[in-house]
Structure formats: C-alpha cells, structure tokens
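Preliminary data (for renewal application), adenosine-5'-triphosphate complex.
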Amino acid sequence: MAGTTKRAKVAAVVHPTENPPPAGTTRRTRAQALEVIFSTAIELGEGCRHGALGTPRYGKSYHLEHLIRAALEEGICDLALVHDTKREDPQYQGVIRANVAELGARPLGEDDPPIVVFHPDPRTGIKCTVEEVADLGLREGRNGGSVLVVVDELFKALKARQHWSDPSMGEILREGSSIRVSSAWSTQVPQSLPTEALDLTETTSIFMLQGRSLSYAIDAFRLPDEAAPVIKRLERGEFILVTNVGDWDGVIYGPT
Ligand SMILES: Nc1ncnc2c1ncn2[C@@H]1O[C@H](COP(=O)(O)OP(=O)(O)OP(=O)(O)O)[C@@H](O)[C@H]1O
Ligand SMILES: [Mg+2]
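Predicted structure:
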C-alpha cells in the first residue's frame, strides 16, 4: 500500500495542470516537449527539424517562439531567421527586417539579439520570400554558422499543394541537419505538406485538428487510432508530439 501512495505522489508531480488527461495519456510541460524535440540534435551535434500542425489559433506560433529561444539557449543554433509575413504586425520577437536585402544593408549590431524576423510592412508593397530566407540559412550553414530557419506558415513556400515554389526549403530538410541548419515550420493544413516536410521532419507537434485534416494526419503520421479522439479534444496550447516514424508517446504537452 505504501508503494501505491508513493507512485500516486510521483504521478501528481508529472502532471503539470489541474486538467486530468484522457484515459491512456499523461501530461507534460512544453519545456519537456522541447527536450524531446532537441534530443537527437544534441546527441549528434547536428541541427533539428520540427513542425507544428493544427487548427488556427491553437498555439503553433506561440510554441515556435518558445522553441526559438530554447534552441538558442541549448546551443542548437547561434542565429534564428524567421519568416513571419502572415499578419500586419510581426508575431515573433527579434530584430525586424523587411527582407534579406534590408538585412544586408542593415546587419545585426553587436548588442542585437541573434533573431532576425523577416516582416515587410504590408503597406510598403515590399516582399520577402521563404526562398530568400531559406537560401540565407543554407549559405550561413555552408559558411560554418549554426542557424535555425523558421517558416511560420509553410504554405507560403509552396506553389501548389505539396509542391515547393523553390528549392531551398526542401534542401534544408534533406541536408540541413549535417551542416547545422535547423528548421521549424507551422501549417494549418496537413494535406498541403510536401513529402520532405512529412517524411524528414523529425518531430511534429500536432495541435487540435478535426475532420478531414485529422484523418489525413492520422494516416500521414501513421498514428494509432487512439490518437484521433485525443487530438480532437486538445485545448489551446496543448499538443501531442509525433516522430516521422509514427511513434507517439501517449503524452499531451502544454499548455504551460
Ligand atoms: N500555451 C499557451 N499559453 C498561453 N497562451 C497561448 C498558448 N498558446 C497560444 N496562446 C495564445 O493563443 C493565441 C493563438 O496562438 P497562436 O497565434 O500561437 O496560434 P496559431 O496556431 O499560430 O494560429 P494561426 O494558425 O492562426 O497562426 C495567441 O494569443 C497566443 O498568445
Ligand atoms: Mg500562427
């Protein structure tokens, strides 16, 4: 009996929120998710490849913002390049530049944080493509830097469903890790993901999904059927973590 009491106490520590997990699952924090996300990169001294997938407003960008800071702290990268052109205002914190040409003209100062957020002011008509940011990431990597390229909304890198507009993002996913070019992307619609994003991204955070997107994700990530009701009921800031070989640890991460 004493053993049972001890086990119950340990379980209470592991569950960070008041909300009991659905049967067959456990809860862990977002910091614990980041440990899993970075584990292979740290072990091998390479880059990491992560994706965030889910319905609008459920916390993908919030999660990626946290991931950028943690990746810098863990030494996964020395520099983060963030493509953030979705909203009128920047969603990520860092040094704002309209595009790569502007970064060339106004490089980071010594006291600047090593996070460049590419966000052209929509009123100026200036554009910033995913390609130019991804290409800069690859060049930095080939010159010996360690870089994290973040694409908030991967559909901006596509010309059609499952097809890249340009080569660099696929190249980062295929070859980036070994030259310490890490990647992190988000998308609302799993059906649009190109093969490299599905098959080469090491870990994907799946936030709440429903309907066709949910069925597609279960199939595409080869998840067990028990994952579907769990994903459907995730609340804002909660996600499950899956690997590209279909492993699911039965854990709900977040929201704290
Ligand atoms: N874990 C969390 N804890 C507290 N607030 C959160 C958390 N996750 C998200 N939020 C808040 O919820 C709102 C929506 O989050 P976010 O913008 O990250 O969603 P999203 O999935 O990126 O949406 P979209 O697909 O529209 O870009 C934001 O105001 C964000 O600050
Ligand atoms: Mg977002």
